[in-house]
Amino acid sequence: MSKKTSRIIIFASAVIAITLFALFLKDILVPFIKLEIANDVDGAKELLRSRGILGFLTVALVEALQMVVVFIPAEFIQISSGLSYPFPLALLLCDLGVCLGATIIFILVRTFKIQNDAYDRRKKTIDKIAGAKQAKGDKNTILFMLLLFIMPLIPFGAICYYGSGTKIKYHKYILTVAGGVIPSIVTSNLMGSAARAFIQNSLPLWLLILIIVLLGALLLTTLLFFLNKYFLKESDGTPDSPVFSMLMKLSEIYLRGRLKLKVGKPFPEDVTGPFVLLANHQCFFDFYLVYKLGLPLRPAYVANEYYTRKGKFETKCSKKMGFIPKKLFTFDASTPIQIYRTLRKGYPVAIFPEARMSVDGTTNPLTEESAAFFRKMGYPVVLVTIKGAYFAKPKWRKKIFRSEVVVSAEKVIRQEDFAAYTDEELNALIRETLWNDASNDGLNTYRQKNKARGLENVLYRCIHCGKVYSTIGEGNALKCRNCGLQNHLNSRYLFDEEIDGRPGTISAYYSKIRDMEEAELDTLRLETLVDTKIFDKNMNLRLKEKGECELTKEGFSYRSGSVSFTVPAKELVALPFSCGEEFETYHNNELYYFYPEKDPVQAVRWALIGDILRERRVQSEKQD
What we know:
By secondary structure, the protein is an alpha/beta fold.
């Protein structure tokens, strides 16, 4: 049958459905609600008795026709029937109406080959869900239809058009429909019954809300159970899992209108199998920016162990998504093993080799220099750069600014290319390719009036008078409370023209602080009292205590009533930190979070001194 004829039939069905809706609303539902508001129970009963079988037929026919035209929501008539009739009768009428509509759809699809435009618009959604488990054969088709029936936002009619388009036999099809719709109908009818009790003033508002929430939770629990038991096992623990899809969808919704993403150099078309992706790390949402590059396969991310295992929910979700947990700046033999296994399974692995977000807008030293490891893996290495994301949401600012972000696949190192590089040359190539200074991007202008807020959590020292913890970000200026010096940021996030040798960028200012700290390092003794949180190897909070931290050129030390340990400078890789909050390290496979009791802004200073000590060690090793 032609598409035009199909549309005429669907339009006619829609007209009939709307007419029946109007009849139902005018002659039954509206008078019924008015009588109930007036607490005229006898009048309401008399109204229903006077309509007799017409009311029954209206419920069934409207339920049937809303399925045929797809775009009319079934919940309306189901809740209305729950308001008008006893629960068992309302359930029966709705289920009969669904079966009638499903039969009509079956005939339209199998006999007349009619295609419904409203269904076609939802076909992509259904196909995406089907991707978790291809519905081949009657058994899988039945399971898949049952899953769709308990999922929200997918009309019953669309599901029936899907089922009718398969090879399932009618008797199996109609039994699946009749049983599959019951949970949703029961939920809607019970909501209607609860609403009726509320209208009669026999049910408090709080109890009505509680019933609706509990019914929704019951339907959701049923959905999750069904998903987990029949559909998610094959993709569980991989980037193909629906949990991974949900994370990316939520990220997309949150970042819509905030980050304008552009692809600079597209991902190479000839890289189709598993690969290792290395990218610089500018902001928290880099995982999503990499994903939007147009990769041929979904990647498994190597992520901070703390964020992937700190709670039961985080642990379960990260496992389902195939995330690979990593202890920051600490050797963890399980991580390379999981990377290798993931690649062998056919999935790419995405790694941010800085192992932390950029502090000042420049690419951090790549502490995870693993050229030998990548060579041994034998898979292509794709180098990706992210530009424009740092000032959108820097480490030191809570609010996200609208920005244009450019993601580019800069270079591919294929298996046959490895022979052309030594490990040192390969590490150098990775460092050079991923290097970026956000202040030189020139991608965005920022006209906000609070660009410097929180900047003292990175630029903690005045480069004019040398006073530590004296700076404060106010408006668009970084001010020193000790000497009064001010550095203003313009719309490009650059400081005013260099005056008296002042730096023109945030990264240059940070570099000046670094030079000052390095000049004083031989005599420096950094000490602070801290509140400490200690997490065991499973990321469970084991202990809260008070202690004292110390950092000198000899290394890092911690002392408390329960433990005392030292990390020599030659073993200190880095001290990761959160701006204005804490710095951290591992000891005996446990994670220590240190919260300074005074001047929490100093967390960045501990991290910077740790970086300087590491750089000294690296330079010394090169000279030797």
